[in-house]
Amino acid sequence: MRQPSPIIGNSQPMREIRKLIETIADSPATVMINGESGTGKELVAQALHYQSPRADANFVPLNCAAIPKELMESELFGHRKGAFTGALADRVGRFELAHGGTLFLDEIGDLSLDMQVKLLRVLQERTVDPVGSSRPVEVDVRVVAATHRDLEAEIAAGRFREDLYYRLNVLPVITPPLRERGDDILLLAKYYADKFAYKSAPVTFSPDFADALKAYEWPGNVRELSNLIHRFSTLFSGQKLSLRSVPAAMLPKGLQKLQLERGDAVVENHEPHAADVLQMFAVGDNDATLSEAVTITEPEHNHVEDIILLAQGGPVLPPEGLSLKERMAEIERAFIEQALDRSDGNVSKTARLLNLQRTTLIEKIDKYRLRSA
C-alpha cells in the first residue's frame, strides 16, 4: 500500500523534492541521491519506495561504508554453506531480500572498485551469484544509491567507475542542505521537540532563539538539529528556551558565536531548570549537598556550565586540580547568598526559592556565616 511522503518541510527546495518523488516513484529506473551528510537521503529513498508500486515489498538499506570490504560480496549477494571459513549456513544477500522491492545503497562512493564491477554486472544482468554457488539467482530490485561525495571528482581520481556512475545516475536527486531551507528549520525543531518530549510538554523557543536557529549554518544538517533538540528535551524538558537560557557548553560553536555576538552568553536569572542540570551531577555529602538547589544567577561565573563541562570532561578543571567537595560547597554557598539577596534576607522566601526546609536553610546560613534579616 502506498504511503504519504514522510518528508517534513514547506520550503521551495522541499516542495520540488516532493514533486520530483511523485514524478519518478513509479519508474523502475535507478536513482542517485546526492547531498551533504545529514540531509535526509535515506528519507528520500524511503519516500520513493513507499510511493511506488513496490511499497508492499521490502525496503532494504545497506551502508556501503559500514561493511568490511571482505564481507561486502556476501552481504550483497549472499553465500552458500561452506563457501568460506565461518559460512555455517546459507545466507540470503541484500539483493534477494529486496526482491520485488527497493535496495538502498547508502554511501555508494565508499564501495571498493572490485565490488563496483560486480554491482555493475548485477545491474546489467539482473541476476546475482551467491558466494559458493554455481547457479545465478534472478532478482527484481529497484536500486537507489546515495552519496555525499562528488562522484565525478572520484571518477577523475580513479576511485569510482564511470560506467557504474552512468548506470546509477539515471534519475538524479539532490537533497538541499538545511541552511537553504528557511522556515523548515523551525518546523523540524518543533517536530523533534514533540518527538523527544518525555513526561512534560515539549521544549519551545523564544523569538530570539528561533532567529538564531535560522541564522546558524547547520554543518551537520537535519541530523545535527535532531541531536540538538534531543539534548534540549533531556536537559530543559518542558521549558521555553531563549538564547540566554542555554549554557554555551550546550550549544554548537556556531550558536555559541551567535550567542556572544548578540550579548546573550549568560544564563537568565529566572531560568529554573538549570538547577535540575545541577541535580543530575550533584554529589551526595552531609556537609555540602546541591541536590536541593533550584535557583541560579551569577553572570560573572556560570557554575552550571562548569558542572556540565566537568561531567563532559571539559576544560574546567585547573591544571593544579581542585577539591570537588570544596567547589560544591562554594557553589551551594553562592546560591544561598544570591537567594538571600533576592528575598531581601527573608529566610522563608529564601527557603521557598531554594526548595529547602526552613530549618535546613538556617543551618546552612549558620554554616556559611551568611546574613539574613
What is the structure about, briefly put?
It contains 16 helices and eleven strands. The chain has 373 residues and is α/β, with parallel strands linked by helices.
Sheet with most strands: 5 strands, parallel
Count of discrete domains: 2
CATH topology of the largest domain: Helicase, Ruva Protein, domain 3
**Helical fraction:** 40-55%
**What separation lies between the terminal Cα atoms?**
72 Å
Morphology:
elongated
> Any idea what the CATH architecture of the largest domain is?
Orthogonal Bundle
Average predicted local confidence, pLDDT: 83
The class by helix and strand makeup works out as alpha/beta
Helix and strand pattern = HEHEHEEHEHEEEHHEHEHHEHHHHHH
Numbering strands along the chain, what is their spatial order in the largest sheet? 2-5-8-1-9
CATH class of the largest domain: Mainly Alpha
Q: Which regions have little confidence, pLDDT < 50, spanning 5+ residues?
A: 265-301, 309-316
- Kindly state the number of beta strands: 11
Oligomer: single chain
Total count of helical runs of at least 4 residues: 16
Radius of gyration of CA atoms, rounded to a whole number: 28 Å
